[in-house]
Amino acid sequence: MHLETMKKITLQLSLLLVFCSSYAQLTPEDKLGTWYDIGINHRISEKASIDTYTQTWLYEFNDNFNFFLFKMGYNYHFNPKLKATIYLGYSDFDNNISISSPHTYEKRITEQIIFKHKLSSIPLDHRFRIEHRFFRKHDSKSKVARLRYRLGTKFSINNVLFIRLHNELLLTPKSSNIPENRFYSGLGINISKSNNIQLGYMNRSTSNKTNLHRLQVGIFFKTDLRKKKNSD
User: Fold this and answer.
1) 147-150, long-range: CB within 8 Å, 24+ apart, which pairs?
2) Which residues make Cβ contacts (< 8 Å) with residue 132, sequence separation at least 6?
3) Backbone phi, then psi, for 192, in 5-degree steps?
4) pTM of this prediction?
5) How far apart are CA 123 and CA 54, in angstroms?
6) Which residues of the chain have pLDDT under 70?
7) In contact, 129 and 148? CB cutoff 8 Å
8) What is the DSSP letter of 179?
9) What are the E-state strand segments in 157-206?
């Protein structure tokens, strides 16, 4: 083999190793990712409503798939301040930001209670969740339970704009990992009395000590079949 050819091959291999090394070091913390949410609530009676909800996470801004969730739930409204919900959900994970890897699929059952009240003049909402999660990977199956508690508030700026703040703690019992924490702050825009768009920032501190910064875009709709029934 000629010396010049060997030099070319050595150079190409070196460049390839440098590229692979830099690419392998890419982590979710290196990128400003995005989360997209679409939530729809269908009120069917004074005591009942149905939720449909989808969420998509991307590792990078509008690129690089991370997570997809779809769930549907039934709500029982005890009163305007208290409701209980049960959800059935399905999700798809890509756990690697850098390379294509086998996905993890999940079936999820969720029980939830939301309670709203005011502390002085400050509106507060508490959300308690228990999630039963059933995972399927290409070579294994597993299940785990997770507890979640979220404290939130919403401030109206005017008839169109509002601010939404909440912080959520996620805990997996019998796990040695530290709890996950999610802090969200966002600006909401009322499209109508029943529909709004939220643009916000999510800081997600995960159980493996990863600190993620994510832009969040949410669209939320409400329909009320009670109005139609009353007009018939």
Assistant:
1) 147/171, 147/172, 147/173, 150/125, 150/126
2) 108, 109, 110, 143, 145
3) -155, -170
4) 0.83
5) 26
6) 1-26, 176, 227-232
7) yes
8) P
9) 161-171, 180-190, 196-205
